[in-house]
Design brief:
481 residues; alpha/beta; Rossmann fold; six-stranded parallel sheet; four-stranded antiparallel sheet; 10 strands; 53% helix; 12% strand
Amino acid sequence: MSAAISHGEALSVIGLSHHKAPVSLRERLAFRPEDVSKALGGILARGFHEAIILSTCNRVEIYSVAGEGGDPGVRIREFLSEYHGVPEADFSGALYHHRGIDTIRHLFEVAASLDSQILGETEILAQSKEAYRVASESGACGRTLRSVFERAFFLSKELRADGGIGRSQASVSSAAVALAKKLFELENRTVLVVGTGEMATGIVRALKSAGVADIWVASRTESRAQEFAAKEGGKPCHMKNLEDYLAKVDIVLVSSAAPHYIIGPKEIEAIASKRRNRTLCLIDISVPRNVDPAVHDLDDTFLYDIDDLEEVARDGRMEREAVAARWRPKLAEDARELLRILHGSEPRETAKKLLEHAEGLRDTITKEYTRGLDPKAAEALSRALERLQGKLLHGPLDTLKQAAREGGGTDASAWVSRLFRLQNDAANEAVSGDRAFKSPAPKEGPSQDKADEPCKRRDERTDAAPERMDSGGSDVAFAAN
């Protein structure tokens, strides 16, 4: 029988990002929002207890808690290759794999936008929360990832309240508009925005702030374009009439959820005569890309993608980097503390389950064998079974308590669970999202909003201890804490 995987190995993240992987690679491994639930099921089927997929324009990451069954890293790489139909050799060199404390610290920095292309950008926190929501609703997020992600959300809010990072409202969408501003004088220009999602919302708002008055917004459905334009501004247009608008505009900003190219050489060549050699600039921040890279080779046409935002990302970075440098040690310390609590939570939960299991068996036997006995004999039998339970459980409970102190809680919990056949209960709890784990949280501040309520509810709750557990004094106290 193989040894249990420790928390340092079981909790991990494997992914790739803008740091090492170009958009041409990231788009091949990106997950469409409507496919994430199915993909999570595929990961769990490979022997993982928990999983969350974070797929954005600049990163694809899989956070997981592995069970036994081989190297977790190998399993995730195989999953990515098979799911997307991409040979592992094509992406393995760009992957990073963090385990244990490094996983927690990495997520803290990602959610706080300290690992973003645009340092301090505002969109990654919402994207992380959406990834967490989908995993929770899919039954793929259990106690460990819930604790890590909710803590990451809280710390991100605290960092932004500290000032500096979020002061200028940096975002990928605002960076795309900033790039357009470097290329053109935006006033009196006609701009087409393709897409009506969150990024498109940021683009339209940034364009209006830059003084652009003539904005067209295209969507696959006319009703969606009209709804978006009524809320955010701009003039609605339907995607089927895209060529007509491409002939009129100066700049096209694309942020669509389409899984394929919607603008290519064919569309640009079809409008060439109408444009009469006027320059057309396209900025595509979609992942997968929605504008064929071959467009860049056409006359009077310039195409930029999300990787071209790097130069814009440097603007205002010095002030944000000073805040980031101050916060990184704090995030690392929080990661260490959270991992310490994760190490200790498993043996306590296993001890609690063991006691509940033994209590249930004892109650069943007591009821069965005291039926018809006189009260004194029944009481004697009940006390004898109680003492027997205490003596039998003293060893495993003491082992779990010692393991919690010494850092081997995961291994001890796994062996005790197998010995007393508690695995099914533990697996069901992980899938259903048991909230018994309590991660630390700093004092609440004015920066918190409704997004932090899951953290508050968890921290305000105290675990209920059974009123009576006659199985060994201090061992019972350990299991109840």
